[in-house]
TrEMBL record:
<feature type="transmembrane region" description="Helical">
    <location>
        <begin position="145"/>
        <end position="163"/>
    </location>
</feature>
<protein>
    <recommendedName>
        <fullName>Inner membrane-spanning protein YciB</fullName>
    </recommendedName>
</protein>
<feature type="transmembrane region" description="Helical">
    <location>
        <begin position="45"/>
        <end position="66"/>
    </location>
</feature>
<keyword id="KW-1003">Cell membrane</keyword>
<keyword id="KW-0472">Membrane</keyword>
<dbReference type="InterPro" id="IPR006008">
    <property type="entry name" value="YciB"/>
</dbReference>
<keyword id="KW-1133">Transmembrane helix</keyword>
<keyword id="KW-0997">Cell inner membrane</keyword>
<dbReference type="GO" id="GO:0005886">
    <property type="term" value="C:plasma membrane"/>
</dbReference>
<feature type="transmembrane region" description="Helical">
    <location>
        <begin position="12"/>
        <end position="30"/>
    </location>
</feature>
<comment type="similarity">
    <text>Belongs to the YciB family.</text>
</comment>
<feature type="transmembrane region" description="Helical">
    <location>
        <begin position="169"/>
        <end position="191"/>
    </location>
</feature>
<keyword id="KW-0812">Transmembrane</keyword>
<feature type="transmembrane region" description="Helical">
    <location>
        <begin position="103"/>
        <end position="125"/>
    </location>
</feature>
<comment type="function">
    <text>Plays a role in cell envelope biogenesis, maintenance of cell envelope integrity and membrane homeostasis.</text>
</comment>
<feature type="transmembrane region" description="Helical">
    <location>
        <begin position="73"/>
        <end position="91"/>
    </location>
</feature>
<dbReference type="Pfam" id="PF04279">
    <property type="entry name" value="IspA"/>
</dbReference>
Length: 204
């Protein structure tokens, strides 16, 4: 397996957040317009989605080229973008793309939940090098994150089915990002309690 290569954090963040920001800007510019292509009318949302698909593939490819590694989460996200984004464009139906976050978060919740049923924290396998912590801490954090992802899946379903497209785009662009950031910010006490860095300090 190829070793991970260092990458500038700002560049990494740009590559990860860039496609979402580009989708949001494209939607704002195109949302009130209708385009006829090949005799079929497409609204701005569908065209913004069509542009998002290759962009997420390009940025994911650049991340892989620069770091020699992409996470399973990034791979799953890219695959689901291609599948559901492609269905949105092919069938000219925005519902498929709006369902994508539901599938992603339900999948993450299911994977984490399956690991918990086996007495394992799959989250620990992914993040242990970045955030060393005792096993009991990983189990608690994984349980909380599984429930959190399940809640996001339900929330996405409620919003896209009951609210306007504008509301859903704002939720996807800002709401989900803020929610995930906020979740990890609120786990500080847990990480501090079960973090193993203090043990290293005691030995110094």
């Amino acid at each position: 397996m190829a070793d991970k290569k260092p990458i500038n954090p700002i560049l990494k963040l740009t590559l990860e957040i860039g496609p979402i920001a580009a989708f949001f800007i494209a939607y704002l510019r195109l949302r009130d317009q209708v385009f006829t292509i090949g005799g079929t009318e497409y609204d701005g949302f569908v065209l913004a989605t069509a542009g998002f698909i290759p962009l997420i593939l390009v940025t994911t490819g650049i991340l892989w080229a620069l770091t020699g590694h992409i996470s399973k989460m990034q791979v799953a996200t890219a695959v689901l973008v291609v599948v559901f984004g492609g269905l949105t464009v092919w069938l000219n139906d925005d519902r498929f793309f709006k369902m994508k976050p539901t599938i992603i978060y339900a999948l993450f919740a299911g994977v984490l939940g399956a690991g918990l049923l086996r007495g394992q924290s799959y989250l620990q396998f992914v993040m242990e090098e970045v955030m060393p912590m005792q096993r009991v801490g990983w189990m608690i954090l994984t349980r909380r994150l599984a429930f959190f992802f399940a809640a996001l899946a339900v929330l996405n379903e409620v919003i896209w089915r009951t609210m306007s497209t504008d509301m859903w785009v704002n939720f996807k662009t800002f709401g989900l990002t803020i929610a995930i950031f906020g979740f990890f910010m609120t786990q500080g006490a847990l990480i501090q309690k079960y973090g193993i860095e203090e043990e290293k300090d005691d030995q110094g």
